[in-house]
Amino acid sequence: MTVFVWIENFDGQAIGTSWEALGAAKAIAEALSTDATALVFGDNAEAIAAEAGRYGADNALVCADSGLAEYRLESYAAVLSKLVSERAPQAVVAVASNRGRELLASAAVDTASGLISEAVDLRIEAGKIIAARPAYAGKVLMEMTADSRTSFVTIRGRAFPAPERGAASSIHIEKVKAVAVPDAISAVVEGFAAEIGKINLADAAIIVSGGRGMANNPLAAPDELSGEEASIWKAKRGFADVLAPLAEALGAAIGASRAAVDAGYIPYEHQVGQTGKVVNPDLYIACGISGAIQHQAGMRGSKIIVAINKDGAAPIFKLARYGIVGDLYEVVPALTEALRRRLRN
Amino acid sequence: MHVITFTRSTPDTAAKVWVDDSGAVTWGDVATVVNPWDEYSLEETIVQAKAGAGKSTVIAVGAALHEDALKHSIAMGIGNALRVDEAGANTDDSLVWSALAAGAIKKLGDVDLVIFGKESVDVGTDQHSYQLARRLGWTMLSYVSRILDVDYASGDIKVEKMLEQGKQIVSARLPAVISVMKGINEPRYPNFLGIRKAAKAQIPVWSAADMDIDLPIAKTKVLRYLNPPARDVSTEMIAGDSVEAKAQELVGRLFEGKVL
Ligand SMILES: Cc1cc2nc3c(=O)[nH]c(=O)nc-3n(C[C@H](O)[C@H](O)[C@H](O)COP(=O)(O)OP(=O)(O)OC[C@H]3O[C@@H](n4cnc5c(N)ncnc54)[C@H](O)[C@@H]3O)c2cc1C
Ligand SMILES: Nc1ncnc2c1ncn2[C@@H]1O[C@H](COP(=O)(O)O)[C@@H](O)[C@H]1O
User: Fold this and answer.
1) Which of B116, B126, B180, B184 for a ligand 2 pocket mutation test, highest count of atoms within 8 Å of Cβ?
2) Pick the CATH number of A2-184 from 3.40.630.30, 3.20.20.80, 3.40.50.620, 3.20.20.140
3) Looking at residue A196, what is its pLDDT?
4) To test ligand 2's pocket by mutation, which of B128, B131, B184, B220 has the most ligand atoms within 8 angstroms of CB?
């Protein structure tokens, strides 16, 4: 008996939220009086497994076969399914990242196991795992359980605390073999373009977001631009010249409302909300965002919300812990300056 | 050449949704809409079927409520619609769901590509596409932001897909299941002719027996729905004589509260 946790890695390093999954797995394991086993596949697997030990994993199953060096759904799912079939863990936990979701969903089919996604709370009752997850954009909470030998659970990033990193690792590491996969279903990665220098919204502890109000940049647009084109130019400059420095001072990621994305002020990857990303940072600063229900759906889980809006009646203030009524093009630079001053002292 | 897409009805995103005294989720009498993430998959299905000079079909698994989404899909321009409904089947369980969905794909027999939206906006499990692909033993390409190339004759597909860390170019073989992101296209609005066609459409309903499948046992169970605790925020409006004073006040508050 054990609880599996998949440690997701990228570029030879565990992604930060993997440790949250490890913490969640370890907590369930303890409640079930068993241990936590980290599954580490691919490049640098042994070093990452040792690191997992420092974060509290008792055992690790590692597979560093060349076929698994890079993540591929089919080859990873084949190993995971085999390990679940052979060792019958009580649960398999991973972060609900793009990869975590598809990997666990696939192995759950292979092993005829129940899958619960995006859990924000886990507890044990009478030996069973009970998961709570939000639905209807957080308007409703649902409690679920799985009846299979193994329960598959993905957890929402930043919903569970990451364990403290200990100095020593006494993890027991066992090597396992890859499983052959038919070529026909394997995708081939032909290229990769990294989001350079950007902090990932899902992992971010602080997010600074801009909305349609970003278009009201007092900076004059070039003469040849007018109408919508001038607004886009102004808003883009606003994100680069005004929001980005604040984000940089805070070590924050940059978010946006759908209105800002749809108007072409910033790429879709930054959209927060019901049809964008769901985020739950410690601090969310909304600038020139009215706070529509669909935007709230993506950021309501933030611990502290700050709203900067020139309209004192904007709904975003109802969610905010702190509000400043004013022009973001005056408030944000002043805030950046005050922050820098404070950080220097 | 046959492209399939799956969709269903979801409550309007602006609707108030709550758990009533009987413990059921309700949104009163607010209308449903087609799952907003599916506007992109429906559009892509229409575009791909046309580009490959083939057929398009939209499938909903579940109760009659989902016919509204199917009619919206026809109104947009999807050629055929189908509803899969098995009395008593727990389609909230994704293993049951994917068995029914795979049954429909196998019965259709001529499918090259299945296109999903990223997730359902209400329950948002984001697991149905993967589980269908797995049941069929087909390639899964998730979070596709662009289809770069498809050749139905040779069976090759090349896409750009999104990861948290960046964008990947991936090539694979058909048949395949893909899920698409917002931004892949500009969904069209239904036009008058489409709406008339949808109003007249008779949508066939298939049961498990029609597809000759045995349903698996549901492995997940919803224990209860709860209204989340009200968010307890007292808003403090930061006052000050100047913008600088307000900014300094706010920074002070954030440090005092150990937010920073
Ligand atoms: C199915 C569906 C899904 C959706 N999904 C999402 C989603 O995922 N994410 C999302 O965000 N929205 C989503 N929306 C859209 C949502 O309903 C709103 O339209 C959108 O959030 C509004 O964005 P906004 O607040 O930037 O713009 P607005 O509502 O136009 O608000 C702009 C705000 O900026 C303020 N402002 C203007 N100038 C300044 C200035 N100089 N200084 C300070 N304040 C200023 C104004 O007072 C105003 O409050 C969705 C809608 C639907 C129907
Ligand atoms: N019962 C259903 N019938 C048809 N499509 C569905 C159903 N449930 C989910 N989908 C689609 O599957 C995709 C992923 O949804 P989900 O896995 O529920 O987040 C979306 O395109 C949904 O519209």
Assistant:
1) B116
2) 3.40.50.620
3) 56
4) B128
Supply the pLDDT for residue A187.
84
Q: How confident is the model at residue A197 (pLDDT cuts 50, 70, 90)?
A: low
B139·A186 Cβ contact <8 A: yes
Q: Mention every residue, 6+ apart, whose C-beta is less than 8 A from residue A236.
A: A265, A266
The architecture CATH gives domain B2-206 = 3-Layer(aba) Sandwich (3.40)
Q: Which of A137, A41, A25, A159 is nearest to A91 (CA)?
A: A25
Structure tokens at A329: 């093009």
Mean pLDDT of B92-118: 97
Q: How many Å separate Cα A72 from the centre of its chain? A: 20
Is the pLDDT score of A5 beyond 70?
yes
ipTM: 0.96
Mean pLDDT of chain A: 95
pLDDT at A45 over 90: yes
Nearest to A140 among B19, B125, B253 (CB): B19
- Structure tokens of A237? 């400059």
Question: What are the residue ranges of helices labelled H in chain B?
Answer: 38-51, 67-76, 94-108, 128-136, 192-200, 208-211, 243-256
